[in-house]
């Protein structure tokens, strides 16, 4: 549940620009960029927060030299191991030139600089970031929407086909025991973020532990793969020009990415339980988009992976999203988040838990 990091700035359906510069003040980032990008025009830059994200802070930096995107951790206290800019930078750099489209990274800075935190700068990729709707006139026909859905699955399959050692990502994570560690990690984050007891969430977590399937594959994992963490080609539906938000990427079980995509997905026939757990607008419920079962079939055909436990992975994704929403609410209450749109986070926790419980046959 993170910000889209580049592209779509002129598209009203994408993340909004807010004239907030806290955390990336022009008087600080201007000289930094002028030095790093070897162009004094960055000294007179304009900064705007790209809203819509609830985790790392993402800014558009513009001047006469062009536009770039700056990515940094949120303000204030953050959970351990989260918001690692160096990891994001590393995976983006590694994937450049593969079948997985990513923005080109331009600069990485340490916490010892004037900004006081690690951050990186990347190119602005032109296209559509679609969170609440498709742009007017874009993919109006069902065939165009089908092409978008197919591309999402195919890019995910391409990511999971990348050999980590072949792109310099040896040691980027520990695939063995990945999901067990994930369950522990997200349980710890729940304990660190909760503002009250929620037995249903504890019960969901316990059932996930009891029914944990064996890990059958290992790959580079994105960690938050969904429609609005991609940039769609500005004029050609069915082409993805960049995958964004790699803050949770690692080496692990690729089916966690598939489960995440399914948890974010909407269908026209979704019942009240699934509809209540929607974290984003039901863009994919429009005619032409593939259903969840079609996504699973295509992914299995492209990867050859055993997807028989896919419902467990989708339930796990709902559990993680519930914890993420609780963390967002806690950080927003503590003043560590910027921008708007945080009021729904707390409300979504219980519906997400309910959706996960039903997938596992409890509650």
Question: If you had to describe this structure to a student in words, what would you say it looks like?
Answer:
It is a single chain. Strands 1-2-3-4-6-5 form a six-stranded antiparallel beta sheet, with helices on one face. Strands 7-10 form a two-stranded antiparallel sheet. A two-stranded antiparallel ribbon has the order 8-9. The protein starts with 16 loop residues before the first strand and ends with a helix. Helix 3 packs across helix 8. The chain has a domain of 107 residues: Phosphorylase Kinase, domain 1 (2-Layer Sandwich), CATH 3.30.200.20. It is 37% helix and 12% strand. It is α+β, with helices and mostly antiparallel strands and 363 residues long. The N terminus is likely disordered. It has ten helices and ten strands. The chain is globular. The longest helix is centred in the last third of the chain and has 24 residues. The relative contact order is 0.16.
């Amino acid at each position: 549940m993170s910000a889209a990091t580049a592209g779509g700035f002129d598209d009203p359906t994408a993340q909004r620009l807010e004239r907030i510069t806290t955390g990336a003040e022009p008087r600080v980032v201007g000289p930094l960029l002028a030095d790093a990008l070897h162009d004094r025009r960055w000294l007179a830059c304009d900064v705007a927060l790209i809203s819509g994200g609830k985790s790392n802070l993402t800014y558009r930096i513009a001047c006469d030299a062009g536009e770039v995107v700056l990515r940094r951790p949120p303000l204030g206290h953050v959970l351990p191991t989260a918001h690692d800019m160096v990891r994001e930078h590393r995976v983006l750099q590694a994937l450049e030139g593969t079948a997985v489209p990513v923005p080109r990274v331009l600069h990485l800075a340490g916490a010892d600089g004037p900004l006081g935190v690690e951050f990186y700068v990347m190119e602005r990729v032109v296209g559509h970031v679609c969170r609440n709707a498709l742009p007017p006139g874009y993919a109006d026909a069902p065939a165009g929407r089908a092409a978008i859905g197919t591309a999402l699955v195919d890019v995910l399959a391409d990511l999971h086909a990348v050999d980590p050692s072949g792109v310099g990502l040896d040691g980027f994570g520990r695939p063995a025991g990945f999901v067990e560690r994930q369950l522990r990690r997200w349980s710890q984050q729940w304990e660190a973020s909760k503002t009250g007891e929620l037995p249903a969430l504890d019960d969901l977590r316990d059932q996930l532990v009891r029914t944990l399937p064996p890990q059958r594959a290992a790959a580079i994992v994105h960690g938050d793969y969904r429609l609005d963490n991609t940039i769609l080609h500005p004029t050609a539906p069915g082409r993805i020009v960049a995958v964004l938000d790699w803050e949770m990427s690692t080496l692990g079980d690729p089916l966690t990415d598939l489960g995440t995509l399914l948890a974010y997905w909407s269908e026209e026939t979704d019942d009240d339980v699934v509809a209540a757990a929607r974290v984003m607008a039901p863009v994919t419920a429009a005619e032409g988009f593939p259903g969840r079962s079609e996504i699973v079939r295509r992914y299995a055909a492209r990867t050859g992976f055993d997807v028989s436990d896919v419902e467990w992975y989708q339930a796990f994704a709902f559990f993680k999203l519930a914890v993420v929403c609780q963390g967002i609410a806690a950080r927003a209450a503590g003043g560590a988040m910027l921008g708007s749109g945080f009021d729904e986070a707390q409300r979504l926790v219980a519906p997400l838990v309910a959706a996960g419980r039903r997938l596992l046959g409890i509650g």
